Amino acid sequence: MGERSKVTDFVYAAMFAALTAVLGLISIPLPFSPVPVSGQSLGIMLAGSILTVKQAAFSVLTFVLIGAVGVPVFSGLTGGLGILIGPRGGYYLGFLVGAIVIALLRGQSSNPWRLALANLIGGIGVVYLFGVAWLSVVTGMSLEKAVMAGALPFIPGDLFKVFAASAIGTAINKRLRKSRQ
């Protein structure tokens, strides 16, 4: 069981890292912010909603490391250390912590409201905390301006992603539970 479990962890990590990269193809630059609108936060929410804590962490870590070495997996087909140390870097660190928080808060529950709350806290709260703080430090923006440029414009879309990730996660988790019985 141990060896099969490790293979499963790696396969899920690879699948969700790839999904997050593909969702980066949805990238809309905003003229007033160095951070684009991206589909990648949906991938992070889905990883936390469906995978175990370990699998979610492996998934996002794989995604970030692949991007760090230059493979263009970040939003807008970008990659490299420059992205991670630039204005968007905090969001990518927030993705890692956020996916772990979502999976931890979800636990073994199949309650859709609990999953939605986990996605709100981990997928928006944690990601914005890291992203906005890093944006402020790297650009020299005041924290207030960083919130205006790096959080407020994204809230409506991210709330939709919370709804989508929670609905998809609930449905998939129910199917997975049935298949294990």
TrEMBL record:
Top-level division of the source organism's lineage: Bacteria
A Pfam family it matches: BioY
One of the record's GO molecular function terms: biotin transmembrane transporter activity
Bilayer topology annotation: Multi-pass membrane protein
Transmembrane segments: 12-31, 60-83, 89-105, 117-137
Alphabetically ordered keywords of this record: Cell membrane, Membrane, Transmembrane, Transmembrane helix, Transport
Keyword match Transmembrane helix: yes
GO cellular component term of the entry, any: plasma membrane
Chief localisation class: membrane
Gene3D superfamilies: 1.10.1760.20
InterPro entries: BioY
Location relative to the cell: Cell membrane
Family label: Belongs to the BioY family.
Protein name, UniProt field: Biotin transporter
Organism: Anaerosporomusa subterranea
